[in-house]
Design goal:
Layout (H helix, E strand, L loop, with lengths): L6 E4 L9 H16 L3 E4 L5 H12 L3 E4 L3 H4 L1
Parallel strand pairs: 1-2, 2-3
Helix pairs in contact: 1-2
Protein name: Lysine decarboxylase family
GO molecular function: hydrolase activity, hydrolyzing N-glycosyl compounds
InterPro entries: LDcluster4
Length: about 70
């Protein structure tokens, strides 16, 4: 799979303590990115809003790249 020409970078909460409205908006964003043929670059987490955006993008067939800074990887 080749990387898309346009990539959107999204960094957001990894906390699970977010409202359903914010989760829905994050999912809508991820899906919209994929449906436009753009890629997503994000904070690499699978929980919270980060996870919502990434899952929605992947579920819609999008290209996702996670970036975890060395400081946070441990």
């Amino acid at each position: 799979m080749t990387a898309p020409v346009h990539t959107v970078c999204v960094f957001c909460a990894s906390s699970e303590a977010v409202s359903a409205e914010h989760r829905a908006t994050a999912s809508e964003l991820g899906r919209g990115i994929a449906l436009r043929g753009w890629g997503l670059m994000y904070g690499g987490g699978n929980i919270g809003l980060m996870g919502e955006v990434a899952r929605a993008c992947l579920d819609a067939g999008g290209h996702v790249t996670g970036v975890i800074p060395h400081l946070l990887a441990d």
